[in-house]
Specification:
Length: about 200
């Protein structure tokens, strides 16, 4: 086993306080508290199904609107993943996953190639799932991808229940991330790029 792949990020503004720790070689443990229950539930899918250890402690001005808090969580989660990946040597890099949840189906493809971009095709019927504004789900994923320096495509082509659609997307994200960050012994120590840098 090589060096620990751990990222620690703290961000404090006038609006939010966010602390995130990510261990890419964890055991699926999570300690997540954002004060937005449905957001906690979605974020918990990443460590559980990606088999990472993730701690997120976040608070902020949600009495106004949870927008600032959710955006800053995405920023910090992305930065923590990027820090944990380091130079990204030896990783599989690209991966995808297709995950059903009852009537819902989600597809995720990603490339940890160093360029942050998100292409999201998710439609929700309700303005909120619990206390989580559905328009912020895409915003969170975009911030995560941009700050994590990876290319992310998410599609939810089927589903009638917004909870199921969102949860399937996060489970698929977790599975794709798990495959992409995996160390490939055939390219140990090598950067998986013809440029030799990511």
């Amino acid at each position: 086993m090589g060096p620990e792949r751990i990222g620690n990020i703290r961000r404090e503004t006038k609006e939010t306080q966010v602390a995130v720790e990510v261990n890419l070689d964890g055991a699926g443990r999570s300690d997540i508290d954002t004060s937005v229950g449905m957001l906690d539930h979605l974020l918990e899918q990443i460590p559980r199904h990606g088999v990472f250890d993730i701690t997120i402690k976040a608070s902020g001005d949600i009495d106004r609107d949870p927008h600032h808090l959710i955006e800053d969580i995405g920023i910090c989660l992305g930065r923590a993943f990027s820090e944990a990946l380091g130079e990204r040597r030896g990783i599989v890099r690209m991966a995808h996953a297709v995950v059903p949840l009852d009537e819902a189906l989600a597809l995720v493809a990603l490339d940890l190639g160093g360029r942050g971009y998100a292409a999201l095709d998710m439609a929700f019927d309700s303005d909120k799932i619990g206390q989580l504004p559905t328009d912020m789900i895409g915003h969170l994923l975009s911030a995560f991808a941009i700050e994590g320096r990876f290319n992310l495509h998410v599609q939810v082509p089927a589903g009638t229940n917004d909870h199921h659609k969102a949860e399937a997307a996060f489970k698929a994200l977790a599975r794709a991330l798990a495959d992409a960050v995996r160390l490939d012994p055939r390219i140990a120590g090598e950067v998986p790029s013809t440029k030799e840098v990511l």
